[in-house]
Amino acid sequence: MKALVAVKRVVDYNVKVRVKADGSDVDIDNVKMSMNPFDEVAVEEAVRLKEAGKISEIVAVSLGGKKSEETLRTALAMGADRAVHVETDAKLEPLAVAKLLKAVADKEAPQLLLLGKQAIDDDANQTAQMLAALLGAAQGTFACKVALENSEVLVTREVDGGEETLALKLPAVISADLRLNEPRFVKLPNIMAAKKKPLEKTTPADLGVDISPKTNVVKVAEPKPRQAGIKVGSVAELVEKLKNEAKVI
Amino acid sequence: MSVLIIAEHNNQQLNPATLHAVTAAAKLGEVHILVAGSNAAAIAESARQINGVTKVLLADAPYYGEALAEEITPLVVKLAGDYRYIGATATAFGKNLLPRIAALLDAPQISDLTEVVDNKTFIRPIYAGNAFETVQSDAPKLVLTFRATSFDAAENGGNAQIQTVEAAPAQNLSRFVKRELTQSDRPELTQAKVVVAGGRALGSAEQFNALLMPLADIFGAAIGASRAAVDAEYAPNDAQVGQTGKVVAPQLYFAIGISGAIQHTAGMQDSKVIVAINKDPDAPIFSVSDYGIVGDLFDIVPQLTTALKS
Question: What is the pLDDT of residue A228?
């Protein structure tokens, strides 16, 4: 059984981004970029399923500019077998990403499609659900446990009050929550080996997908800063402030 | 233009989260609510009493009982013709369902939005709340999820009509197996007026509970946690506050032994008053807290609990 894993190159999660002075976007020139943390979890899960003999091949897919290739090489070093890079410099909305991934999935015919639950840049949390919809497939979002059993996949999901488990028909789309697993560190020999693994290039035009945007970002702004607070010297002072100044108790 | 809001419920009770979406949607037009459920007449009855709702659509079928996105989506797509906007609150339910609907309508979705500027302009946080983008769309249909803490809950006082609608055919792509919910007498985290949250510095689940529960009991507060505390199993997963957990905005938020990483503050920085207790004077939490105490939480929290009790 084949698995497809989608990975995104984003600003590293430790970077505190700044908004550009003209308010057009956040400034990501010369900041550290990494694989989206949720996608790392998705790749790790696919590799574990392969190591357990449940799936036979892992295809990693990324969409974006030339440097997305680095993100794909990371996925290959973690254990993906080959990669597909849909190269485009266009800013992609989740719906366009889902359409591109569907086009790749139509060619590859995977039984399991793994994605992160959200990208830490746009925080949209949409792509996996949209991809499942376009494929007419079942979805297991916010997964914290995945078990493949014959023609079904059991997915335990993080929901607001706790957890729930669903059984999905294959093919199915799964979006990974952080608690699904702990991604492995990539070792140097694996990075070297990953350079030799196949990486196929394609474009949205090759795939016949219209990626023209349906929304338009008119402004990006810093959040309203919180009023700087004070440090108090004692518990008594804190209680007094909460009572008489903040009036919340 | 009217708005279709999808009700979140468990067939017995309407989730109060839905009330926030009604307030947000009322800025866009006439608000209708869809109740898809199994034996969910009671939910429709609750929904019709919400102020600002003019019609309730009730679709009852056994396969709507577990709120599976695969089942509810075809129903919403079938009903979508009359609506420019389809919306829900950005809870786990809304986040799971709405993008599936958007894709089949070929409509863009604007997620977790915090402000409705006008009928095509919305504001939403990006990069863990470190920036806010203003998004416009002229698309004929828009799918929206609303951040609950940014809109007040709609109150009761309405008297909408209930219209029964035919269920869409069952899809049978997925099957509900089981649900394990955290048992708690405390208020729901996202609705609580006071939140007492702990981090890794609590050291163990026993100490987490022994220190935080008595403080929380004073206010009838909900318990929150940082990701580190959840990973260390001091608190259940659904107590996590932050970019990947829940977004809360209570009147009073206690951050106890929490350093204040951006992924955490993304979920609580709209709280009215933030109190931080941390032994590290340089912890980033002090840059968002209104009142901070530098010191050992094992001394300070019991003192604070005693002082507040008296």
Answer: 76
Classify strands A82-87 and A112-116 as parallel, antiparallel or unpaired.
unpaired
DSSP-derived pairing of the beta strands A26-27 and A33-35 = unpaired
Chain-chain contact of A123 with B112 (C-beta, under 8 angstroms) = yes
Chain centroid, CA A10 distance in Å: 9
Among B residues 182-241, those touching chain A with beta carbons less than 8 Å apart: 182, 188, 190, 219, 227, 230-231, 236-238
Helix (H, G, I), strand (E, B) or coil at A106: helix
Structural domains of chain B in order of their starting residue, each with its CATH number: 2-164 (3.40.50.620), 189-309 (3.40.50.1220)
Task: Copy the structure tokens of residue B115.
Answer: 């402000």
Residue B180 sits at the chain A interface (C-beta within 8 Å)? yes
Tokens 């550290």 map to which residue? A32
CA dihedral B144, B147, B148, B152 (to 10 degrees): -80
Question: Is the separation of the CB atoms in A85 and A199 below 8 Å?
Answer: yes
* Shortest Cα–Cα distance, A41 to chain B (Å): 14
Q: Which strands, in side-by-side order, build the sheet including B273-278?
A: A230-231, B291-294, B273-278, B252-256, B194-198, B222-225
Note the pLDDT tens digit of each residue in B84-139.
Answer: 999 999 999 999 999 999 999 999 999 999 999 999 999 999 999 999 999 999 99
- Check B287 against A139: CB less than 8 A apart: no
Q: How far apart are CA A12 and CA A35, in angstroms?
A: 8
Q: Which amino acid is at A139?
A: Q
Confidence of residue A249 (pLDDT cuts 50, 70, 90): confident
Q: What span, in angstroms and rounded, lies between the C-alpha atoms of B147 and B24? A: 9
pTM summary value: 0.96
> A101-136 pLDDT, tens per residue?
999 999 999 999 999 999 999 999 999 999 999 999
pLDDT for res B272? 96
Q: Does A125 touch chain B (CB under 8 A)?
A: yes
Contact A232 B293 (CB under 8 A): yes
Interfacial B residues in 146-165 facing A (CB < 8 Å): none
Closest CA to A185 of A11, A33, A32, A47: A47
- Residue among B95, B231, B281 whose CB faces A125 most closely: B95
What is the model's pLDDT at position A30?
93
Q: For the residues A147-160, what does the mean pLDDT come to?
A: 94
